[in-house]
Design a protein that fits this description.
The complex is a heterotrimer of chains A (301), B (314) and C (343).
Chain A (H helix, E strand, L loop, with lengths): L6 H20 L1 H7 L1 H18 L1 H4 L32 H37 L1 H15 L3 H12 L3 H27 L3 H8 L4 H37 L11 H10 L5 H29 L6
Helix pairs in contact in A: 3-5, 3-12, 5-6, 5-8, 5-10, 5-11, 6-8, 7-8, 8-10, 10-11, 10-12, 11-12
Chain B lengths: L1 H28 L4 H6 L5 H10 L6 H13 L5 E2 L4 E2 H36 L4 H15 L2 H15 L15 H35 L2 H8 L4 H39 L4 H10 L3 H29 L1 H5 L1
Antiparallel strand pairs in B: 1-2
Helix pairs in contact in B: 1-12, 5-6, 5-8, 5-10, 6-8, 7-8, 7-10, 8-10, 10-11, 10-12, 11-12
Chain C lengths: L5 E14 L2 E14 L3 E5 L6 H9 L7 E10 L2 E2 L5 H7 L4 E4 L13 H12 L4 H14 L5 H5 L8 H14 L4 E5 L7 H18 L2 E6 L2 H7 L2 E6 L2 E7 H6 L4 H8 L40 H5 L5 E4 L2 E3 L18 H5 L1
Parallel strand pairs in C: 3-8, 3-9, 6-7, 7-8
Antiparallel strand pairs in C: 1-2, 1-4, 4-5, 9-10, 10-12, 11-12
Helix pairs in contact in C: 3-4, 4-6, 6-7
The chains are: A mainly alpha (301), B mainly alpha (314), C alpha/beta (343).
């Protein structure tokens, strides 16, 4: 009789293989690695962060070194890979140093916004009642201002400078974080394990920070990643309007501001800086979309 | 139903009050003395003091706040010193310009965005889907002001096709209006269009995979009706939410886009107001944009109620 | 009208799901015939392919990965697999209706009942809105919905599950149904409502002379409703007979297991219900031998080596089992499998 593997043996082998695969596949990190969107986004973000970190090494010139003899030179002029601006400063160097400012501002502003917003959202969502009403009405009020307008006024109040820009964009970010967190907390706090915790006498604060917060974190991370993307644009907009990072400090927005004034004579100034903004924002958006797809089982195919 | 809409309407009042308060606080916190800003640095101390008294700046903050509220109720939004005119007519004159720009952009964005989203959902995972979703991703990631600059560079400076600045005049024919509207309108439409395409696609995919869609097919209902009527109506609520948010976003975009295209709207005026430290004008413009947002938000909520029979019945 | 006319004939139907992880043979060679005005039940545990069989008949696959790879489906003399999309629309909802498991999600939540009924009627019949409306009201009355006119203006969420199922049955009655496919029509309903819905189906069948294909995992429903029964396991037909035969002398070990696991009124509470040990096979790996061999107490070598054919051992009684296909028929309960396990 020919030795044939029965369905049973085949099934057992397949099951083992499948179990192994599933265990591997269910790991969030591995899922993220298989998600093309997330990988591309992560790659772009990493490249930008590395460029920013190693700006002093990579930059061919001092970003603020003025060379009045060679203003508005085009791409590839005598070692200036991306040309020079109105004062003959090397644009590549300015973009690399600008990446530091833009990324720090965007991430910093998101952290500020997330910290305050999450705290407000947690308290409002968990305790409800008048606390909820007061907090969320206030947030609604803030939310009613166009984002950029709120940031513009805050900057005008606080003054220029990196920290103030971070604070301004951060504060303008608070209401949306509060809303997202509150919505999530309201769902999570009704779950069985929260009731169980209450039954065994876990204190409110402990329940809130040790049990509810960790269950909201994934949503918040997704949202924060997407917010970094828009914070990059916000910083650039503010600097573009002359309200953000003050010259001569290089940021992507401030390079664009110069680029606008010489749009017809030296279009590469605005062109290159804007391209960097676009690619970085795409990177963060891809990363955020990817993480959401991984964490949201409904979206998986 | 009418009761619920009325209730939603009343809910806007505390929000508006908070908006007014925040606006007041923020403008008071602005650095620099507005009296000095108006009269110039060389003005004498007496003149400045007189001006401060006229602007009620010498009173205590709560008093100022009460006076401000009183004025608002009477329709007095203050006097703009940089324009030398009352704020209310100034703002009212500019609102139509901004509204026409944003509305054109939004209508265009809604039509194109949702159409692309629906087709992409039906043709999920095809070349069409991939192509337009990449395009939509670029759209939502686009710094609009940069795109505006690049478009101006290409179409106005290099090709000389479209005017760079200002708003067209109907006296010069409809072509003039459209050619002036084209670039700023397209810039403003980019983000909402991309967002609509993405939201419509995901909402449609979710709806089309639900039980009742399969049942409709089992009942022999034609495919275009299944998708166009049942699919779309069920997929609509998230779209309405996004539409509400995009109304606000488009207005935000207008602040910058208007500046680039010298469009005589609220955005340009807000810029001027902030640069000139024109307290009353900042207050007025900011307040108006916030009120517009609160109002839009309310409309969205009402639309939401009308669309969802479960809410309607409650 | 001749009561013996065949309305639905399915032959060698194979429906496979093509997925990244392999080809799942959800339905792997199923044949049956259904006569006009009669009721056939398809029973089997979840994942045995009964729902996919009915979806194949409707040509309405639950997912894009599913494809009918072989076989033929003949409905009233027409080959359904050769129908164009346009003709399919006429067939679906008019001549053949489907009732799904969950009535609450079977109706579009944002349209009123009346709108959905009129829409469907006018898809198939060239009549005015007013006439369609009247016909819908009539149908609602027919299925025993009180205040039919008022219900026409209701949204689905305002009705109970049983009411929704009645509305769906009413929709089926609006056309000219020759066949009603009921995919677990009572599973999502309360027990009392279940009986009412089944009673209603039976009543309509008598009145309209419709054939019913009833998919269920509840044997009790089968005894009550069906003329013939097909037992499915892992995508195959294992036994196919008229209800009386199957009830009195079932032949396949799986059917025995199924019958034993049914709670009986006579059994005392101390007796535990019998279960069939083991789990059904992975449907990506079937098709090499008897699919039931790993759970069958009567297993022999031959069961591991070849697929048992569906054999007509008595007129109208088909069984797919190696051990029932020959001289030494198995007797139910005879556990002789010990020597087989010892090898």
């Amino acid at each position: 009789m020919p030795e044939r593997k029965t369905q049973d043996v085949l099934g057992r082998e397949a099951n083992m293989a499948m179990l192994r695969q599933e265990r591997k596949a269910n790991n969030a990190w591995n899922k993220l690695k298989r998600n093309r969107t997330a990988v591309i986004g992560f790659f772009i973000v990493c490249v930008m962060v590395l460029l920013a970190v190693f700006a002093p090494v990579l930059a061919p010139y001092d970003p603020n070194a003025i060379n009045p003899i060679i203003p508005y030179k085009g791409i590839g002029f005598e070692g200036h890979l991306l040309g020079t601006d109105d004062l003959g400063r090397d644009i590549l160097s300015r973009i690399l140093y600008g990446a530091r400012v833009s990324l720090v501002v965007a991430v910093g502003a998101t952290i500020v916004g997330a910290t305050l917003g999450v705290l407000i959202g947690l308290l409002a969502g968990y305790f409800g009642g008048w606390l909820d009403v007061v907090f969320m009405r206030f947030m609604d009020g803030m939310f009613s201002f166009p984002f950029i307008l709120l940031a513009m006024i805050l900057i005008t109040v606080l003054g220029n400078g990196i920290w103030n820009v971070i604070l301004a964009i951060g504060i303008a970010n608070v209401p949306s974080f509060a809303r997202v967190t509150r919505g999530q907390v309201i769902i999570v706090k009704e779950e069985e394990y929260c009731n169980a915790c209450r039954v065994v006498g876990v204190s409110d604060l402990r329940l809130l920070f040790a049990h509810i917060l960790p269950n909201c974190v994934s949503q918040i991370i997704v949202y924060a990643t997407l917010r970094v993307a828009s914070a990059i644009i916000s910083e650039a907009s503010l600097s573009f309007l002359g309200l953000g990072i003050a010259l001569p400090t290089a940021s992507w927005g401030s390079i664009l501001r110069i680029g606008r004034d010489c749009l017809t004579t030296a279009p590469h100034v605005a062109g290159t800086a804007g391209l960097f903004i676009l690619i970085t924002v795409i990177g963060f958006n891809l990363l955020g979309d990817g993480i959401r797809d991984v964490l949201d089982p409904k979206m998986k195919q | 139903m009418v009761k619920m809409i009325l209730k939603r309407f009343l809910q806007t009042i505390p929000t508006l009050l908070i908006v007014v308060t925040i606006t007041f606080c923020l403008t008071r916190m602005l650095p620099g003395d507005p009296a000095v800003a108006i009269l110039g640095v060389e003005a004498s101390a007496e003149d400045i003091a007189a001006m401060r008294a006229e602007m009620n700046l010498d009173k205590s903050l709560p008093e100022q706040y009460m006076l401000y509220l009183q004025g608002l109720v009477q329709g007095d939004f203050g006097y703009s010193y940089s324009y030398r005119e009352d704020v209310l007519p100034l703002v009212l004159a500019r609102i139509p310009n901004t509204l026409s720009l944003t509305l054109v952009a939004l209508v265009f964005a809604t039509i194109v965005g949702t159409t692309v989203g629906i087709v992409a959902a039906i043709k999920q995972n095809t070349l069409f889907d991939y192509f337009f979703m990449v395009l939509a991703l670029i759209g939502v990631s686009m710094p609009i002001f940069w795109m505006a600059l690049m478009l101006v560079l290409q179409f106005s400076v290099r090709m000389g096709l479209l005017p760079v600045m200002g708003m067209g005049d109907i006296k010069n024919g409809i072509g003039d209006v459209i050619s002036h509207l084209l670039l700023p309108g397209f810039c403003l439409a980019t983000t909402p269009m991309a967002t609509f395409a993405r939201t419509t696609r995901s909402s449609m995919i979710e709806t089309l995979s639900s039980d009742y869609i399969r049942c409709l097919r089992a009942r022999g209902v034609r495919e275009w009706k299944v998708i166009g009527m049942h699919g779309l109506k069920n997929a609509l609520p998230p779209l309405v939410t996004v539409l509400g948010l995009q109304l606000a976003h488009t207005f935000t975009g207008a602040i910058i886009t208007e500046g680039i295209f010298s469009w005589p709207g609220m955005g340009t005026m807000i810029n001027t107001a902030i640069n000139n430290r024109d307290y009353s004008l900042i207050q007025g413009t900011v307040l108006f944009s916030a009120i517009m947002f609160v109002f839009c938000n309310m409309l969205v909520d009402v639309a939401y109620m009308l669309l969802n029979p479960k809410v309607k019945g409650a | 009208m001749n009561g013996n006319d065949v309305i639905l004939k399915v032959e060698g139907l194979k429906t496979y799901f093509y997925q990244a992880s392999g080809v799942t043979k959800a339905v792997d060679g199923v044949s049956f015939t259904l006569k006009q005005g009669s009721t056939m039940g398809i029973v089997g545990e979840s994942g045995s392919g009964k729902s996919v069989t009915s979806s194949s008949v409707m040509r309405l696959m639950p997912s894009k990965t599913a494809k009918i790879v072989e076989g033929s489906i003949t409905f009233d003399g027409v080959d359904l697999l050769k129908l164009s999309n346009k003709d399919l629309l006429k067939f679906r909802g008019d001549e053949c209706c489907m009732i799904f498991q969950n009535p609450m999600t079977s109706l579009d939540p944002v349209f009123k009942i009346g709108h959905q009924m009129v829409e469907m009627i006018r898809e198939h019949q060239n009549i005015s809105k007013k006439e369609a409306w009247d016909r819908a009201v009539e149908a609602l009355k027919l299925v025993g919905i009180p205040e039919a006119e008022k219900r026409m203006e209701a949204y689905p969420h305002e009705l109970s599950g049983g009411m929704c199922q009645r509305v769906i049955i009413a929709m089926a009655v609006c056309g000219h149904p020759k066949l009603i496919i009921a995919d677990e029509p009572t599973t999502a309903l309360d027990v009392t409502v279940q009986a009412q819905v089944l009673e209603l189906l039976k009543e309509l069948q008598d009145r309209l002379h419709t054939a019913i294909l009833l998919i269920t995992h509840n044997l009790g429903v089968v005894w009550q409703m069906c003329d013939t029964v097909m037992v499915m396991y892992a995508g195959n037909t294992v036994e196919y007979a008229d209800t009386k035969t199957l009830y009195q002398e079932p032949m396949h070990p799986y059917t025995w297991g199924l019958l034993d696991s049914m709670p009986k009124l006579s059994s005392s509470s101390k007796e535990a219900l019998t279960t069939i040990p083991g789990t059904p096979p992975d449907l990506r790996l079937t098709g090499r031998c008897c699919n039931f061999y790993n759970r069958c107490p009567y297993v022999k070598d031959i069961c591991r080596q070849s697929v048992p054919p569906l054999v007509e051992i008595k007129p109208g009684h088909f069984v797919a089992c190696h051990r029932q296909n020959g001289q030494n028929r198995l007797i139910r309960g005879e556990v002789n499998a010990h020597e087989e396990y010892e090898e």
